[in-house]
Amino acid sequence: MGNNTLTRRALFTKLLKKLLVSAQEKDPLFEKYSRKIYNGRRYSSLTNPKKDLTGKSGSETERVTNVTSGLATYTGTWSTSEALHLLRRTGYGFKKSDVDTLLGLSMTQAVNLILTVDNTPPAPPVNHYNNENPDENGLPYGADWTNDAFVTNDIGGDTNGNRTSGLSSWSLGLAFNQDITIREKMTLFWYHFIPVDFEFVKQSSNEFCNTNSARICYKYMKMFRDNATGNYKSLIRNMATQPAMMFYLNNQANTKSAPDENFAREVMELFTLGKEEASQYTEADVIQAAKVLTGWRVQDLNTTSEATNFVDKLHDTSTKKFSSFFNNNAIANTGAGELDLFIDMIFSKSKVVSEYICRRLYRFFVYYDIDANIEANVIVPLAQHFVANNWNILPVLDKLFKSEHFFDMANRGVYIKSPLDVIVGTMRTFNLNYNVSDANNYEAQYDLWNTFNYAMYDMQQAMGSIPNVAGWQAFYQKPSFHEYWINSNSIQRRYGLIEYLFYGFDIEKNGLTTRMEVDAIAFVKQFPNATCEDPNLLVSECINYLLPIDLSITAKNAIKTQTLLTGQASDGYWTSAWKTYQSNPNEMTESIVKTRIRSLLLTIVELAEYQLM
Q: Which InterPro entries does this entry report, sorted A to Z (predicted)?
């Protein structure tokens, strides 16, 4: 990675308008966030880490004290900073109205609201492709395809491809249009944790997959959305026979004469027990589990009533004997009932399962490093709470998000955003047009969503596209975890797209043009006029909303001078311009303030701190 340092330094120099950066001999931001060997977590007892943009030695406050906070209920300040922290971690970015809503509540009420998920299914994906590629079943434009099956395999492949692409776009559209609750972020958690790749399923050797895979992938995602804060054990049982998973991990081909260990291995290694030290299942256990799982088959995939059924003649009828890790448990032949016995056996290792899942939740919602303090003060009691609540995930989330540990300053501004958090969060926060003006122009709408899903694919994350069964590396892979999002290619694409959004571009499709451009004036007008008039207050408020940590007075003054004051010394230079625009809003006065506000906002979002949450 060292060979790329100068490239990225040049990029930052350009993006930050040379704001005190060009004097650096090295690029400490790249050094800080690039992939590297993990050397231990550092903490701060300060509430406002200070950072001088010059990058001079000693100008950045390091995190130097151990974090000992635990799951006791947070009783500290409830302000904009805390509300934003909660919204960033439980959703994609935020709306100013969301912040205002939470600030009208107590911390407890705010978390309750975030966790009150509306389980009403969203409108399903529809035929958006008919104008270019007519549906091979004759399904009308704009119609729901999720219950429309292709009976034969000689037609439907092209339509299924369009539906699969549409499913990815629709999934991203749900993220854009999320409500204030955690549902969409939890859907992503489950999907990254227990994934299927849409294209991989489509390419399955099953004769009807190439024409009907989009429908079963939709139902797989629906399973997560319907169970966003539900029961984890029930989810695992449901997932085990979901058609999309049957094809993805090949349990469809698991038979007594040719056992396939793929699903048996991953259900233990990735989905329940993990592979850390406490998880002591053996290779022999995998072999026995594969025998337990023989005989399940997806049937009637070319109908609207496809189902995974048990076929007795394909099942291994021997008694399956497991290792001492499972207390030498034996599962005798009970046919279809063996699956439930197997899942019960896994969950009998409640300490191992609960702690593994709580670590995965922690690394997704809080931070990736789990040291001895966090293991003892957060993971272990949270796991006990999980088991005590009969594997229901909602009480676990409630305990975590109301804890002093979640709101600990050591956990703010330290987590590198995923591409979804960067792009979806930016577009939601700045109220960009992620929905087209004509709701019935499905082709234009899906094309817009697909444009951004494709852009995020280039940043190594996209809806429906998983690199492997373990999900995205940033959420599980030691030692770098979330640092895997950052490399010399991805960082340029992140900043490049943000810059495009500020200077604006059009997306044209099916006779409809959608302008993608941040309305800088509208964004700051969300704040009181007294804040907008004062350049110091305006800079501080924008930093407060857009960055997870504060900047030094020196940095704020430098940003103010270079943007709102355009190099002038007097604050009145901005105040006068704003008041003139307010009293006489015409093309010229608007242009003056728009240019300066856009410069301010762009400077802030192109700071490396904007990549954190």
A: DUF1800
